[in-house]
Specification:
Length: 87
Protein backbone atom coordinates (compact mmCIF):
# COMPACT_ATOMS: atom_id res chain seq x y z
CA UNK A 1 0.00 0.00 0.00
CA UNK A 2 1.29 3.46 -0.92
CA UNK A 3 1.06 6.17 1.71
CA UNK A 4 0.78 9.81 0.69
CA UNK A 5 2.77 12.43 2.54
CA UNK A 6 2.38 16.18 2.37
CA UNK A 7 5.30 18.54 1.74
CA UNK A 8 5.47 19.89 5.29
CA UNK A 9 5.57 16.41 6.81
CA UNK A 10 8.17 15.31 4.25
CA UNK A 11 10.47 18.24 5.09
CA UNK A 12 10.12 17.58 8.83
CA UNK A 13 10.94 13.88 8.38
CA UNK A 14 13.92 14.75 6.19
CA UNK A 15 15.24 17.02 8.93
CA UNK A 16 14.76 14.35 11.60
CA UNK A 17 16.56 11.82 9.42
CA UNK A 18 19.54 14.11 8.82
CA UNK A 19 19.80 15.09 12.47
CA UNK A 20 19.62 11.47 13.62
CA UNK A 21 22.47 10.45 11.32
CA UNK A 22 24.54 13.54 12.15
CA UNK A 23 24.29 12.81 15.87
CA UNK A 24 24.95 9.10 15.30
CA UNK A 25 28.21 10.08 13.59
CA UNK A 26 28.96 12.51 16.44
CA UNK A 27 29.26 15.45 14.02
CA UNK A 28 28.37 18.99 15.06
CA UNK A 29 26.12 21.19 12.95
CA UNK A 30 29.06 23.53 12.39
CA UNK A 31 31.27 20.71 11.13
CA UNK A 32 28.65 19.23 8.82
CA UNK A 33 27.66 22.63 7.48
CA UNK A 34 31.31 23.47 6.76
CA UNK A 35 31.91 20.16 4.98
CA UNK A 36 28.76 20.71 2.89
CA UNK A 37 29.47 24.39 2.11
CA UNK A 38 26.28 25.63 3.74
CA UNK A 39 25.76 27.81 6.79
CA UNK A 40 25.13 26.35 10.22
CA UNK A 41 21.82 28.25 10.37
CA UNK A 42 20.75 26.68 7.05
CA UNK A 43 21.53 23.22 8.40
CA UNK A 44 19.66 24.01 11.61
CA UNK A 45 16.62 25.09 9.58
CA UNK A 46 16.80 21.89 7.51
CA UNK A 47 17.04 19.70 10.62
CA UNK A 48 14.10 21.46 12.27
CA UNK A 49 12.01 21.05 9.13
CA UNK A 50 11.69 24.82 8.90
CA UNK A 51 12.87 24.97 5.30
CA UNK A 52 13.52 22.81 2.27
CA UNK A 53 16.85 22.83 0.50
CA UNK A 54 18.29 22.32 -2.94
CA UNK A 55 19.01 18.79 -4.10
CA UNK A 56 22.76 19.39 -4.38
CA UNK A 57 22.82 20.34 -0.68
CA UNK A 58 21.04 17.09 0.17
CA UNK A 59 23.49 15.12 -1.93
CA UNK A 60 26.40 16.77 -0.08
CA UNK A 61 24.79 16.12 3.32
CA UNK A 62 23.97 12.50 2.50
CA UNK A 63 27.45 11.85 1.09
CA UNK A 64 29.17 13.46 4.05
CA UNK A 65 27.09 11.44 6.52
CA UNK A 66 27.50 8.30 4.38
CA UNK A 67 23.77 7.73 4.01
CA UNK A 68 21.83 6.92 0.88
CA UNK A 69 18.58 7.94 -0.72
CA UNK A 70 17.50 4.33 -0.23
CA UNK A 71 18.09 4.73 3.53
CA UNK A 72 15.88 7.80 3.52
CA UNK A 73 13.14 6.14 1.47
CA UNK A 74 13.14 3.18 3.87
CA UNK A 75 12.88 5.60 6.81
CA UNK A 76 10.04 7.49 5.09
CA UNK A 77 8.16 4.28 4.37
CA UNK A 78 8.47 3.17 7.99
CA UNK A 79 7.38 6.56 9.34
CA UNK A 80 4.39 6.92 7.02
CA UNK A 81 3.35 3.31 7.66
CA UNK A 82 3.52 3.81 11.44
CA UNK A 83 1.53 7.05 11.20
CA UNK A 84 -1.16 5.47 9.04
CA UNK A 85 -1.47 2.53 11.44
CA UNK A 86 -2.18 4.87 14.34
CA UNK A 87 -5.10 6.62 12.60
Amino acid sequence: MTHKINNVHFIKLLGQFIKFHRLRKNVSQDELAFKCSITQSSLSNIERGATSTKIHNLVNIFNTLEISIKDFVTFLDKQTHENSSIK
